[in-house]
Amino acid sequence: MTRIVITGATGFIGSNLASLYLRQGYEVFALVRPESQSRSILPVHENLRIIEGDLDHVLDCVASIRQAEGFLHLAWGGVNRDEIDSQEIQARNVAGSLDCVRAAHLLQCRVFMDAGSRVEYGRLEGIMEESAPCRPVNQYGKAKLEFYQKAVPLCEAFGISYYHLRFFSVYGWGDHPWSVISTLTRDLPRGRTVSLSPCRHQWNFMHIADAVQAVYELYRSGCEAGEVKNGIVNIAGSDTRPLRSFVEEIHEIAGYRGNLEYGTFVQAKEGALSVRPDITKLRQLTGGRWQEKVTFRRGIEEMIKKEEAKET
């Protein structure tokens, strides 16, 4: 049975990735912090192996796993507003992530993939292609970019194919309760008022099912490659438009219940940054095996139904 290691497996994307790999017949080793309060998020499966450890001690987990084909690194601390600009916390993230690459080498992994972020691009006008210059505006984005730049030569030296996955806005059931999609699909059907930014900037949403399938197909691409490959890949959907358009569509699906208050939400220091991802590379690398299947409307309808089911 093929083995895969996942850090951040109790997170939104990580738990969904673990479920997908288990369905595909993999043995999944999930690295979970000893003090984690989110273990219930992990899928229940006979081929799931929980390994206790954190980024500061990831190399200690190698002996328990022994060997794996791939390493999916999604764990990252300091993503809230209070810590996102902490140089100390972000530096620890980079150091621990580089240890993940070293662990992948010791485990004889063929592929290493990690969760980058759209914030690495920073204030970029126009289409966000992977080759575009990056100007991150916070320490989180700077640390993600720094890790990528240091991981490329390390993976090349180890002979590991490496994809740096720049996730944009992935949504779906189980996402953070404070995300804009979770807030709207929870509060509008209940007749509540939702405070928002002006929502004039361009945005892009991708359903979690499409996102994890894209990662899986990229992983297969990395395993099938005859030579070591590395590079950045945007993980995003094809639907880019003003954020207000998405918000109004959710309001319509919710039967126009609740109220929208534009311009009353206090944004992060970087302000409203438009995102226009190019996913040409994602399509090329997956060789047509990945196709977006969940429309925004369908994804929102499913979330609202699940929210309403909680009330009954």
From TrEMBL:
It comes from the Bacteria. Pfam families: Epimerase. Residues 4-224 form the NAD-dependent epimerase/dehydratase domain. InterPro entries: Epimerase_deHydtase, NAD(P)-bd_dom_sf. PANTHER family: DTDP-D-GLUCOSE 4,6-DEHYDRATASE-RELATED. Belongs to the NAD(P)-dependent epimerase/dehydratase family. This is NAD(P)-dependent oxidoreductase. It comes from Clostridium porci. The lineage of its organism: Bacteria, Bacillati, Bacillota, Clostridia, Eubacteriales.
